[in-house]
Amino acid sequence: MPTPIASEAEMSAFLARAGFTLTPEQVAEYAEAYGYIVEMSARIRGERSYMAEPAHIFSFPTEESAR
Amino acid sequence: MSTDILTISEAAALIKAGKLSPVELTEMCLSRVKAFEPELHAFVTLTEDRARADAKKAEAQIKASGPTSPLHGIPIGLKDIIDTKGILTTCQSAHNIGNIPDTDATCAAALDAAGTVLMGKLTTHEFADGGPSFDLPWPPSRNPWNTQRFTAGSSSGTGAAVAAGLVLGGLGTDTGGSIRGPAALCGIVGLKPTYGLVSRAGVAPAAYSLDHIGPMAWTTEDCALMLQALAGHDPADPASANRAVPDYTAGLGKGAKGLKVGVLSRWHETDRPVAPAVKAGIDAAIAAYDSLGAEIVEIKLSAMHEYNAAGFFISTVERGAAYERMMLKNPEKFGQRYRDRLVFAALCTGMDYVQALRRRRELIAEMAAAMAGVDVLLTAGNPDEAPPIDQVPRWDNLDKPNFTMAFNLTGMPAICVPAGFGPNGLPISIQLAARPFAEAMLLRAAHAFEQATAWRDRRPDMLGLAKAA
Protein backbone atom coordinates (compact mmCIF):
# COMPACT_ATOMS: atom_id res chain seq x y z
CA MET A 1 0.00 0.00 0.00
CA PRO A 2 1.21 3.52 -0.71
CA THR A 3 2.33 6.03 1.86
CA PRO A 4 -0.66 7.79 3.45
CA ILE A 5 -1.21 11.19 1.91
CA ALA A 6 -0.32 14.37 3.74
CA SER A 7 -3.79 15.84 3.29
CA GLU A 8 -6.52 16.33 0.75
CA ALA A 9 -5.98 20.06 1.27
CA GLU A 10 -2.49 19.65 -0.18
CA MET A 11 -3.93 17.91 -3.23
CA SER A 12 -6.60 20.56 -3.63
CA ALA A 13 -3.95 23.27 -3.57
CA PHE A 14 -1.98 21.55 -6.34
CA LEU A 15 -5.10 21.09 -8.44
CA ALA A 16 -6.20 24.69 -7.95
CA ARG A 17 -2.72 25.90 -8.93
CA ALA A 18 -3.06 23.91 -12.16
CA GLY A 19 -6.48 25.41 -12.80
CA PHE A 20 -8.28 22.09 -12.48
CA THR A 21 -11.69 22.21 -10.83
CA LEU A 22 -12.57 19.02 -8.99
CA THR A 23 -15.29 18.31 -6.47
CA PRO A 24 -14.29 17.14 -2.96
CA GLU A 25 -15.54 13.67 -3.93
CA GLN A 26 -13.27 13.62 -6.95
CA VAL A 27 -10.32 14.82 -4.89
CA ALA A 28 -10.99 12.00 -2.45
CA GLU A 29 -10.93 9.51 -5.33
CA TYR A 30 -7.39 10.58 -6.17
CA ALA A 31 -6.15 10.21 -2.61
CA GLU A 32 -4.96 6.64 -3.10
CA ALA A 33 -3.21 7.56 -6.35
CA TYR A 34 -1.55 10.53 -4.67
CA GLY A 35 -0.09 8.22 -2.06
CA TYR A 36 1.70 6.31 -4.81
CA ILE A 37 2.96 9.57 -6.31
CA VAL A 38 4.35 10.74 -2.97
CA GLU A 39 6.09 7.39 -2.60
CA MET A 40 7.69 7.64 -6.04
CA SER A 41 8.66 11.25 -5.39
CA ALA A 42 10.72 10.11 -2.42
CA ARG A 43 12.34 7.41 -4.55
CA ILE A 44 13.82 9.87 -7.07
CA ARG A 45 15.38 12.06 -4.36
CA GLY A 46 19.01 11.57 -3.43
CA GLU A 47 22.54 12.85 -3.75
CA ARG A 48 23.42 13.30 -7.40
CA SER A 49 26.76 13.88 -9.06
CA TYR A 50 27.51 16.77 -11.41
CA MET A 51 27.09 14.34 -14.31
CA ALA A 52 23.43 13.90 -13.39
CA GLU A 53 22.71 17.43 -14.56
CA PRO A 54 19.78 17.34 -16.97
CA ALA A 55 21.74 18.49 -20.01
CA HIS A 56 20.00 20.54 -22.65
CA ILE A 57 20.33 17.72 -25.14
CA PHE A 58 19.24 14.10 -25.07
CA SER A 59 22.37 12.01 -25.34
CA PHE A 60 23.79 8.72 -24.25
CA PRO A 61 26.78 9.21 -21.94
CA THR A 62 28.56 6.15 -23.26
CA GLU A 63 27.03 5.86 -26.68
CA GLU A 64 28.73 3.31 -28.87
CA SER A 65 28.36 2.51 -32.49
CA ALA A 66 26.05 -0.37 -33.20
CA ARG A 67 27.83 -3.66 -33.64
CA MET B 1 4.76 -21.07 -40.69
CA SER B 2 1.02 -20.66 -40.76
CA THR B 3 -0.17 -21.02 -44.31
CA ASP B 4 -3.54 -19.30 -44.10
CA ILE B 5 -2.16 -15.92 -43.03
CA LEU B 6 1.03 -14.78 -44.69
CA THR B 7 3.87 -12.88 -43.06
CA ILE B 8 5.29 -9.83 -44.81
CA SER B 9 8.38 -11.71 -45.97
CA GLU B 10 6.31 -14.65 -47.24
CA ALA B 11 3.93 -12.34 -49.11
CA ALA B 12 6.82 -10.30 -50.51
CA ALA B 13 8.45 -13.45 -51.89
CA LEU B 14 5.21 -14.54 -53.54
CA ILE B 15 4.59 -11.06 -54.98
CA LYS B 16 8.12 -10.89 -56.32
CA ALA B 17 7.69 -14.32 -57.94
CA GLY B 18 4.44 -13.22 -59.54
CA LYS B 19 2.46 -15.82 -57.57
CA LEU B 20 0.43 -13.34 -55.53
CA SER B 21 -0.95 -9.95 -56.45
CA PRO B 22 -1.32 -7.08 -53.97
CA VAL B 23 -5.00 -6.89 -54.98
CA GLU B 24 -5.52 -10.53 -54.05
CA LEU B 25 -3.62 -10.10 -50.79
CA THR B 26 -5.58 -6.98 -49.87
CA GLU B 27 -8.88 -8.72 -50.53
CA MET B 28 -7.78 -11.58 -48.24
CA CYS B 29 -7.12 -9.06 -45.47
CA LEU B 30 -10.37 -7.21 -46.11
CA SER B 31 -12.32 -10.45 -45.89
CA ARG B 32 -10.75 -11.14 -42.48
CA VAL B 33 -11.60 -7.59 -41.41
CA LYS B 34 -15.23 -8.20 -42.36
CA ALA B 35 -15.29 -11.47 -40.44
CA PHE B 36 -13.51 -10.45 -37.25
CA GLU B 37 -13.61 -6.69 -36.85
CA PRO B 38 -17.11 -6.70 -35.31
CA GLU B 39 -15.60 -8.49 -32.31
CA LEU B 40 -12.07 -7.13 -32.32
CA HIS B 41 -12.66 -3.37 -32.74
CA ALA B 42 -9.12 -3.07 -34.06
CA PHE B 43 -9.98 -0.22 -36.44
CA VAL B 44 -11.18 3.30 -35.75
CA THR B 45 -11.32 3.92 -39.50
CA LEU B 46 -11.21 1.22 -42.16
CA THR B 47 -9.91 2.80 -45.39
CA GLU B 48 -11.30 0.17 -47.71
CA ASP B 49 -11.36 2.34 -50.85
CA ARG B 50 -7.86 3.61 -50.19
CA ALA B 51 -6.64 0.04 -49.64
CA ARG B 52 -8.08 -1.14 -52.95
CA ALA B 53 -6.63 1.88 -54.76
CA ASP B 54 -3.21 1.37 -53.17
CA ALA B 55 -3.30 -2.32 -54.07
CA LYS B 56 -4.20 -1.65 -57.71
CA LYS B 57 -1.47 0.96 -57.96
CA ALA B 58 1.09 -1.41 -56.45
CA GLU B 59 0.00 -4.21 -58.76
CA ALA B 60 0.46 -2.01 -61.83
CA GLN B 61 3.88 -0.83 -60.66
CA ILE B 62 5.04 -4.36 -59.89
CA LYS B 63 3.80 -5.67 -63.22
CA ALA B 64 5.67 -2.89 -64.98
CA SER B 65 8.99 -3.00 -63.18
CA GLY B 66 8.89 -5.36 -60.21
CA PRO B 67 8.59 -4.53 -56.50
CA THR B 68 10.59 -1.55 -55.28
CA SER B 69 10.83 -2.89 -51.71
CA PRO B 70 9.72 -5.93 -49.67
CA LEU B 71 6.81 -3.79 -48.46
CA HIS B 72 5.49 -3.12 -51.93
CA GLY B 73 1.85 -4.20 -52.01
CA ILE B 74 1.76 -5.20 -48.33
CA PRO B 75 -1.40 -4.30 -46.33
CA ILE B 76 -0.59 -2.36 -43.18
CA GLY B 77 -2.37 -0.27 -40.55
CA LEU B 78 -1.39 2.81 -38.57
CA LYS B 79 -2.15 3.59 -34.94
CA ASP B 80 -4.69 6.38 -34.91
CA ILE B 81 -2.42 8.98 -33.36
CA ILE B 82 -0.40 9.06 -36.62
CA ASP B 83 -1.45 11.81 -39.01
CA THR B 84 -2.71 10.71 -42.40
CA LYS B 85 -3.47 13.20 -45.13
CA GLY B 86 -7.20 13.39 -45.81
CA ILE B 87 -8.01 10.57 -43.37
CA LEU B 88 -9.67 10.96 -39.98
CA THR B 89 -7.08 10.88 -37.19
CA THR B 90 -8.87 10.74 -33.85
CA CYS B 91 -6.32 9.82 -31.17
CA GLN B 92 -9.39 7.87 -29.93
CA SER B 93 -10.62 11.11 -28.34
CA ALA B 94 -13.78 13.21 -28.47
CA HIS B 95 -11.38 16.14 -28.72
CA ASN B 96 -10.40 15.01 -32.22
CA ILE B 97 -13.74 14.08 -33.75
CA GLY B 98 -13.58 15.38 -37.31
CA ASN B 99 -9.79 15.92 -37.25
CA ILE B 100 -8.54 15.35 -40.79
CA PRO B 101 -4.84 16.21 -41.19
CA ASP B 102 -3.62 17.86 -44.39
CA THR B 103 -0.28 16.06 -44.36
CA ASP B 104 1.04 12.59 -43.58
CA ALA B 105 3.24 11.97 -40.56
CA THR B 106 6.80 11.23 -41.68
CA CYS B 107 6.45 7.56 -40.69
CA ALA B 108 3.18 7.23 -42.62
CA ALA B 109 4.78 8.84 -45.66
CA ALA B 110 7.76 6.48 -45.39
CA LEU B 111 5.56 3.39 -45.49
CA ASP B 112 3.54 4.89 -48.33
CA ALA B 113 6.74 5.55 -50.26
CA ALA B 114 7.72 1.90 -49.72
CA GLY B 115 4.55 0.90 -51.56
CA THR B 116 2.40 -0.35 -48.68
CA VAL B 117 -1.37 -0.67 -48.85
CA LEU B 118 -3.07 1.41 -46.15
CA MET B 119 -5.91 -0.60 -44.62
CA GLY B 120 -6.86 1.98 -42.01
CA LYS B 121 -6.31 3.64 -38.70
CA LEU B 122 -6.02 1.39 -35.69
CA THR B 123 -7.48 1.61 -32.21
CA THR B 124 -5.46 3.12 -29.39
CA HIS B 125 -5.94 4.37 -25.87
CA GLU B 126 -6.99 8.03 -25.77
CA PHE B 127 -3.95 10.06 -26.82
CA ALA B 128 -1.98 6.82 -26.37
CA ASP B 129 -2.42 6.40 -22.63
CA GLY B 130 -4.68 5.24 -19.86
CA GLY B 131 -6.90 2.51 -21.29
CA PRO B 132 -8.83 0.36 -21.61
CA SER B 133 -11.62 2.94 -21.71
CA PHE B 134 -15.30 2.29 -22.25
CA ASP B 135 -16.36 5.95 -22.17
CA LEU B 136 -14.79 7.09 -25.44
CA PRO B 137 -16.47 7.52 -28.84
CA TRP B 138 -14.89 4.21 -29.98
CA PRO B 139 -14.62 0.94 -28.04
CA PRO B 140 -11.30 -0.53 -26.93
CA SER B 141 -9.77 -3.26 -29.05
CA ARG B 142 -10.16 -6.89 -28.02
CA ASN B 143 -7.54 -9.61 -27.88
CA PRO B 144 -7.90 -12.12 -30.76
CA TRP B 145 -6.74 -14.97 -28.53
CA ASN B 146 -9.74 -14.35 -26.27
CA THR B 147 -11.97 -11.37 -26.87
CA GLN B 148 -12.78 -11.05 -23.18
CA ARG B 149 -9.12 -10.32 -22.55
CA PHE B 150 -7.13 -7.09 -22.71
CA THR B 151 -4.77 -6.37 -25.59
CA ALA B 152 -2.63 -4.05 -23.44
CA GLY B 153 -2.02 -0.67 -24.92
CA SER B 154 -1.81 1.78 -26.20
CA SER B 155 -1.07 0.29 -29.64
CA SER B 156 -3.93 -2.10 -28.95
CA GLY B 157 -5.55 -2.12 -32.39
CA THR B 158 -2.20 -2.77 -34.06
CA GLY B 159 -1.59 -5.73 -31.75
CA ALA B 160 -5.02 -7.21 -32.41
CA ALA B 161 -5.02 -6.54 -36.16
CA VAL B 162 -1.61 -8.12 -36.74
CA ALA B 163 -2.37 -11.16 -34.58
CA ALA B 164 -5.66 -11.76 -36.41
CA GLY B 165 -4.14 -11.22 -39.85
CA LEU B 166 -6.27 -8.17 -40.63
CA VAL B 167 -3.03 -6.49 -41.63
CA LEU B 168 0.42 -7.98 -42.13
CA GLY B 169 2.18 -5.27 -40.18
CA GLY B 170 1.44 -2.01 -38.46
CA LEU B 171 2.84 0.95 -36.64
CA GLY B 172 2.63 1.47 -32.92
CA THR B 173 4.02 4.11 -30.62
CA ASP B 174 5.70 3.47 -27.30
CA THR B 175 6.11 5.87 -24.36
CA GLY B 176 6.25 3.34 -21.53
CA GLY B 177 5.62 0.05 -23.32
CA SER B 178 2.81 0.78 -25.77
CA ILE B 179 4.34 -1.24 -28.61
CA ARG B 180 5.81 -4.04 -26.50
CA GLY B 181 2.83 -4.52 -24.19
CA PRO B 182 0.32 -5.25 -26.96
CA ALA B 183 2.92 -7.33 -28.77
CA ALA B 184 3.39 -9.44 -25.64
CA LEU B 185 -0.30 -9.92 -24.89
CA CYS B 186 -1.37 -10.42 -28.53
CA GLY B 187 1.44 -12.85 -29.33
CA ILE B 188 3.26 -10.85 -31.98
CA VAL B 189 6.63 -9.10 -32.29
CA GLY B 190 6.92 -5.43 -31.37
CA LEU B 191 10.06 -3.32 -31.69
CA LYS B 192 10.66 -0.03 -29.90
CA PRO B 193 13.66 1.43 -31.69
CA THR B 194 16.29 3.72 -30.17
CA TYR B 195 14.99 7.19 -29.28
CA GLY B 196 15.47 9.39 -32.34
CA LEU B 197 15.82 6.61 -34.92
CA VAL B 198 12.27 6.87 -36.31
CA SER B 199 10.75 10.31 -36.81
CA ARG B 200 7.89 11.36 -34.55
CA ALA B 201 6.90 14.26 -36.79
CA GLY B 202 3.16 14.24 -37.36
CA VAL B 203 2.44 11.87 -34.48
CA ALA B 204 0.47 13.16 -31.49
CA PRO B 205 2.78 13.40 -28.47
CA ALA B 206 2.30 11.30 -25.39
CA ALA B 207 5.46 12.40 -23.54
CA TYR B 208 8.03 14.19 -25.65
CA SER B 209 11.27 12.66 -24.39
CA LEU B 210 9.92 9.12 -24.06
CA ASP B 211 7.97 8.78 -27.33
CA HIS B 212 9.06 6.25 -29.93
CA ILE B 213 7.51 4.97 -33.17
CA GLY B 214 8.08 1.37 -34.22
CA PRO B 215 6.93 -1.68 -36.16
CA MET B 216 4.64 -4.46 -34.99
CA ALA B 217 4.37 -7.64 -37.04
CA TRP B 218 4.09 -11.41 -36.80
CA THR B 219 7.83 -12.05 -37.03
CA THR B 220 11.15 -10.44 -36.22
CA GLU B 221 12.08 -10.43 -39.90
CA ASP B 222 8.91 -8.50 -40.73
CA CYS B 223 9.79 -5.91 -38.09
CA ALA B 224 13.26 -5.59 -39.62
CA LEU B 225 11.75 -5.03 -43.08
CA MET B 226 9.46 -2.34 -41.72
CA LEU B 227 12.19 -0.64 -39.71
CA GLN B 228 14.31 -0.42 -42.85
CA ALA B 229 11.65 1.79 -44.41
CA LEU B 230 11.13 3.88 -41.26
CA ALA B 231 14.60 4.66 -39.93
CA GLY B 232 16.44 7.79 -40.88
CA HIS B 233 17.01 11.43 -40.10
CA ASP B 234 14.09 13.82 -40.30
CA PRO B 235 14.68 17.54 -39.72
CA ALA B 236 10.99 17.89 -38.89
CA ASP B 237 11.56 15.95 -35.64
CA PRO B 238 13.73 17.93 -33.18
CA ALA B 239 14.94 14.69 -31.57
CA SER B 240 15.76 12.89 -34.82
CA ALA B 241 19.17 11.22 -34.91
CA ASN B 242 21.37 12.02 -37.87
CA ARG B 243 23.33 8.89 -38.58
CA ALA B 244 23.67 6.22 -41.24
CA VAL B 245 20.99 3.53 -41.42
CA PRO B 246 22.41 -0.02 -41.51
CA ASP B 247 20.86 -3.09 -43.13
CA TYR B 248 18.56 -4.42 -40.40
CA THR B 249 18.20 -7.80 -42.07
CA ALA B 250 21.94 -8.38 -42.35
CA GLY B 251 22.22 -10.32 -39.09
CA LEU B 252 19.09 -12.42 -39.53
CA GLY B 253 20.01 -16.07 -39.85
CA LYS B 254 23.44 -15.62 -38.27
CA GLY B 255 22.21 -17.28 -35.09
CA ALA B 256 23.27 -16.52 -31.54
CA LYS B 257 26.59 -18.34 -31.39
CA GLY B 258 29.13 -16.19 -29.59
CA LEU B 259 26.61 -13.59 -28.44
CA LYS B 260 26.55 -12.50 -24.81
CA VAL B 261 23.07 -12.48 -23.31
CA GLY B 262 22.69 -10.60 -20.02
CA VAL B 263 19.84 -11.82 -17.84
CA LEU B 264 18.13 -9.39 -15.45
CA SER B 265 16.88 -11.98 -12.97
CA ARG B 266 16.30 -9.47 -10.21
CA TRP B 267 13.56 -7.72 -12.15
CA HIS B 268 11.36 -10.75 -12.81
CA GLU B 269 12.25 -12.72 -9.68
CA THR B 270 12.29 -10.00 -6.99
CA ASP B 271 11.11 -6.60 -8.17
CA ARG B 272 8.00 -7.90 -9.85
CA PRO B 273 7.75 -11.66 -9.65
CA VAL B 274 6.20 -12.95 -12.85
CA ALA B 275 3.63 -15.70 -13.31
CA PRO B 276 5.03 -19.25 -13.46
CA ALA B 277 4.36 -19.50 -17.20
CA VAL B 278 6.35 -16.32 -17.86
CA LYS B 279 9.17 -17.55 -15.63
CA ALA B 280 9.14 -20.82 -17.56
CA GLY B 281 9.26 -18.88 -20.83
CA ILE B 282 12.26 -16.87 -19.66
CA ASP B 283 14.04 -20.01 -18.44
CA ALA B 284 13.33 -21.73 -21.76
CA ALA B 285 14.68 -18.72 -23.63
CA ILE B 286 17.88 -18.80 -21.57
CA ALA B 287 18.21 -22.50 -22.33
CA ALA B 288 17.57 -21.86 -26.03
CA TYR B 289 20.28 -19.22 -26.21
CA ASP B 290 22.65 -21.49 -24.33
CA SER B 291 22.00 -24.32 -26.78
CA LEU B 292 22.53 -21.91 -29.68
CA GLY B 293 26.03 -21.18 -28.39
CA ALA B 294 25.42 -17.86 -26.67
CA GLU B 295 27.12 -17.01 -23.40
CA ILE B 296 24.68 -16.31 -20.59
CA VAL B 297 25.69 -13.83 -17.91
CA GLU B 298 23.82 -12.33 -14.99
CA ILE B 299 23.34 -8.55 -15.08
CA LYS B 300 22.66 -6.39 -12.05
CA LEU B 301 20.83 -3.09 -12.37
CA SER B 302 18.92 -0.90 -9.94
CA ALA B 303 15.42 -2.03 -9.03
CA MET B 304 12.80 -1.72 -11.74
CA HIS B 305 10.97 0.66 -9.39
CA GLU B 306 13.81 3.17 -9.80
CA TYR B 307 13.41 3.26 -13.57
CA ASN B 308 9.64 3.37 -13.31
CA ALA B 309 9.57 6.21 -10.77
CA ALA B 310 11.74 8.47 -12.91
CA GLY B 311 9.75 7.46 -15.98
CA PHE B 312 6.48 8.19 -14.22
CA PHE B 313 7.31 11.80 -13.43
CA ILE B 314 8.80 12.54 -16.85
CA SER B 315 5.93 10.86 -18.66
CA THR B 316 3.22 12.39 -16.50
CA VAL B 317 4.50 15.95 -16.51
CA GLU B 318 5.33 16.02 -20.22
CA ARG B 319 1.87 14.63 -20.98
CA GLY B 320 0.28 17.22 -18.73
CA ALA B 321 2.14 20.00 -20.51
CA ALA B 322 1.13 18.67 -23.93
CA TYR B 323 -2.57 18.51 -23.11
CA GLU B 324 -2.90 21.28 -20.49
CA ARG B 325 -4.93 23.57 -22.73
CA MET B 326 -7.44 20.84 -23.59
CA MET B 327 -7.76 19.90 -19.93
CA LEU B 328 -8.43 23.48 -18.89
CA LYS B 329 -10.87 24.19 -21.71
CA ASN B 330 -12.84 20.94 -22.12
CA PRO B 331 -11.95 18.41 -19.42
CA GLU B 332 -15.28 16.66 -19.88
CA LYS B 333 -14.27 15.59 -23.38
CA PHE B 334 -11.60 13.24 -22.00
CA GLY B 335 -12.42 9.75 -20.86
CA GLN B 336 -11.94 9.11 -17.17
CA ARG B 337 -8.68 7.17 -17.45
CA TYR B 338 -6.93 9.81 -19.53
CA ARG B 339 -8.30 12.59 -17.32
CA ASP B 340 -6.78 10.69 -14.38
CA ARG B 341 -3.36 10.90 -16.01
CA LEU B 342 -3.72 14.65 -16.50
CA VAL B 343 -4.79 15.10 -12.88
CA PHE B 344 -1.65 13.20 -11.85
CA ALA B 345 0.38 15.84 -13.71
CA ALA B 346 -1.10 18.53 -11.50
CA LEU B 347 -0.06 16.53 -8.43
CA CYS B 348 3.61 16.48 -9.48
CA THR B 349 5.89 19.41 -8.75
CA GLY B 350 8.52 21.08 -10.90
CA MET B 351 11.13 19.70 -8.54
CA ASP B 352 9.76 16.17 -9.06
CA TYR B 353 10.30 16.60 -12.79
CA VAL B 354 13.86 17.90 -12.55
CA GLN B 355 14.82 15.27 -9.98
CA ALA B 356 13.45 12.63 -12.37
CA LEU B 357 15.55 14.05 -15.22
CA ARG B 358 18.64 13.92 -13.02
CA ARG B 359 17.84 10.37 -11.95
CA ARG B 360 17.41 9.47 -15.62
CA ARG B 361 20.97 10.57 -16.34
CA GLU B 362 22.24 8.21 -13.66
CA LEU B 363 20.12 5.30 -14.82
CA ILE B 364 21.16 5.77 -18.46
CA ALA B 365 24.79 5.63 -17.36
CA GLU B 366 24.10 2.53 -15.26
CA MET B 367 22.36 0.71 -18.08
CA ALA B 368 24.94 1.76 -20.66
CA ALA B 369 27.71 0.38 -18.44
CA ALA B 370 25.84 -2.91 -18.01
CA MET B 371 25.23 -3.18 -21.73
CA ALA B 372 28.87 -2.53 -22.59
CA GLY B 373 29.66 -6.11 -21.60
CA VAL B 374 26.82 -7.87 -23.39
CA ASP B 375 25.11 -7.90 -26.76
CA VAL B 376 21.54 -8.00 -25.47
CA LEU B 377 19.69 -7.92 -22.16
CA LEU B 378 16.91 -10.42 -21.50
CA THR B 379 13.91 -9.77 -19.26
CA ALA B 380 10.14 -10.28 -19.25
CA GLY B 381 7.80 -8.55 -21.67
CA ASN B 382 4.77 -8.64 -19.42
CA PRO B 383 4.41 -10.29 -16.00
CA ASP B 384 1.49 -12.53 -16.96
CA GLU B 385 -1.01 -13.47 -19.65
CA ALA B 386 -3.59 -10.89 -20.72
CA PRO B 387 -6.02 -10.01 -17.89
CA PRO B 388 -9.79 -9.77 -18.39
CA ILE B 389 -10.43 -6.47 -20.16
CA ASP B 390 -12.84 -5.31 -17.46
CA GLN B 391 -10.42 -6.00 -14.63
CA VAL B 392 -7.56 -3.63 -15.41
CA PRO B 393 -6.94 -1.57 -12.24
CA ARG B 394 -7.58 2.17 -12.48
CA TRP B 395 -4.13 2.97 -11.03
CA ASP B 396 -2.32 0.33 -13.09
CA ASN B 397 0.60 2.65 -13.90
CA LEU B 398 1.19 3.44 -10.22
CA ASP B 399 1.02 0.38 -8.04
CA LYS B 400 3.48 -1.95 -9.74
CA PRO B 401 6.51 -1.33 -12.00
CA ASN B 402 6.39 -2.59 -15.57
CA PHE B 403 9.18 -4.25 -17.54
CA THR B 404 9.13 -1.84 -20.45
CA MET B 405 9.50 1.71 -19.08
CA ALA B 406 13.21 1.33 -18.31
CA PHE B 407 14.00 1.27 -22.02
CA ASN B 408 11.87 4.33 -22.76
CA LEU B 409 13.65 6.14 -19.97
CA THR B 410 17.08 5.22 -21.31
CA GLY B 411 16.06 5.43 -24.97
CA MET B 412 17.61 2.05 -25.72
CA PRO B 413 16.02 -0.29 -28.28
CA ALA B 414 13.90 -3.18 -27.02
CA ILE B 415 11.78 -5.89 -28.62
CA CYS B 416 9.13 -8.27 -27.34
CA VAL B 417 9.13 -11.74 -28.88
CA PRO B 418 6.59 -14.51 -28.22
CA ALA B 419 7.88 -17.17 -25.83
CA GLY B 420 4.98 -19.54 -25.33
CA PHE B 421 1.52 -19.72 -23.85
CA GLY B 422 0.15 -19.59 -20.33
CA PRO B 423 -2.40 -21.84 -18.64
CA ASN B 424 -5.28 -19.86 -20.22
CA GLY B 425 -3.92 -20.43 -23.71
CA LEU B 426 -2.82 -16.82 -24.02
CA PRO B 427 0.60 -15.66 -25.28
CA ILE B 428 3.54 -14.84 -23.06
CA SER B 429 6.66 -13.02 -24.15
CA ILE B 430 10.29 -12.26 -23.47
CA GLN B 431 11.86 -8.85 -23.96
CA LEU B 432 15.34 -8.19 -25.32
CA ALA B 433 17.14 -4.85 -25.23
CA ALA B 434 20.38 -3.60 -26.77
CA ARG B 435 22.73 -0.64 -26.88
CA PRO B 436 21.61 2.58 -28.59
CA PHE B 437 21.22 2.14 -32.35
CA ALA B 438 22.11 -1.57 -32.13
CA GLU B 439 18.79 -2.62 -33.67
CA ALA B 440 20.59 -4.94 -36.11
CA MET B 441 22.06 -6.88 -33.18
CA LEU B 442 18.74 -6.85 -31.33
CA LEU B 443 16.92 -8.22 -34.37
CA ARG B 444 19.60 -10.86 -34.93
CA ALA B 445 19.27 -12.11 -31.34
CA ALA B 446 15.47 -12.03 -31.44
CA HIS B 447 15.40 -13.84 -34.79
CA ALA B 448 17.73 -16.56 -33.51
CA PHE B 449 15.39 -17.24 -30.59
CA GLU B 450 12.31 -17.11 -32.80
CA GLN B 451 13.83 -19.61 -35.23
CA ALA B 452 14.72 -21.96 -32.38
CA THR B 453 11.11 -22.14 -31.18
CA ALA B 454 7.76 -23.02 -32.72
CA TRP B 455 5.75 -20.13 -31.29
CA ARG B 456 5.24 -18.48 -34.72
CA ASP B 457 3.36 -21.51 -36.04
CA ARG B 458 0.27 -20.90 -33.94
CA ARG B 459 -2.31 -18.22 -34.66
CA PRO B 460 -5.44 -17.31 -32.68
CA ASP B 461 -8.26 -19.76 -33.25
CA MET B 462 -9.90 -17.68 -35.93
CA LEU B 463 -12.51 -20.30 -36.75
CA GLY B 464 -13.66 -20.32 -33.15
CA LEU B 465 -13.73 -16.56 -33.20
CA ALA B 466 -15.87 -16.60 -36.31
CA LYS B 467 -18.29 -19.00 -34.65
CA ALA B 468 -18.47 -16.80 -31.57
CA ALA B 469 -19.23 -13.82 -33.80
**In percent, how much strand structure appears in the residues of chain A?**
under 5%
Question: How many domains is the backbone of chain B divided into?
Answer: 1
Quaternary organization: heterodimer
CATH superfamily of chain B: Amidase signature (AS) domain
Net shape of chain A: elongated
Instruction: Using a beta-carbon cutoff below 8 angstroms, give the protein chain pair with the largest interface and the number of residues from each chain.
Output: A-B, 37 and 53 residues
Structural class of the secondary elements of chain B?
A: alpha/beta
Biggest sheet layout of chain B: 11 strands, mixed
The radius of gyration computed from the alpha-carbon positions of chain B, rounded to a whole number of angstroms, is 20 Å
Structural class by secondary-structure content of chain A: mainly alpha
What is the beta-strand fraction of chain B? 5-15%
What pattern of helices and strands is seen along the backbone of chain A? HHH
Largest sheet of chain A: none
- Overall mean pLDDT of chain A stands at 81
| Quantity of strands of chain B, as a count | 11
- Indicate the CATH topology of chain B: Amidase signature (AS) enzymes
Q: How many strand units of chain A?
A: 0
DSSP helical segment count of chain B: 15
Task: Walk me through the structure.
The complex is a heterodimer of chains A (67) and B (469). Helices cover 45% and strands 0% of the residues of chain A. The model of chain A has no long low-confidence stretch (mean pLDDT 81). Chain A has helices spanning 8-18, 24-29, 31-43. Chain A has a domain at 8-45. By secondary structure, chain A is mainly alpha-helical. Chain B is an alpha/beta fold. Chain B is built from 15 helices and 11 strands. Chain B has an 11-stranded mixed β-sheet, with helices on both faces. In chain B, helix 7 (220-230) runs antiparallel to helix 14 (439-452). The longest helix of chain B is centred in the C-terminal third of the chain and has 26 residues, at 304-329. The chains are: A mainly alpha (67), B alpha/beta (469). Chain A binds chain B through residues 2, 11, 14-15, 17-20, 22, 30, 32-34, 36-37, 40-41, 43-46, 48-49, 51-55, 58, 60-67, and chain B through 195-196, 209, 239, 246, 305-306, 308-310, 312-313, 320, 324, 327-328, 331, 340, 342-349, 352, 354-362, 364-365, 368-369, 372, 375, 395, 398-399, 411, 435-441.
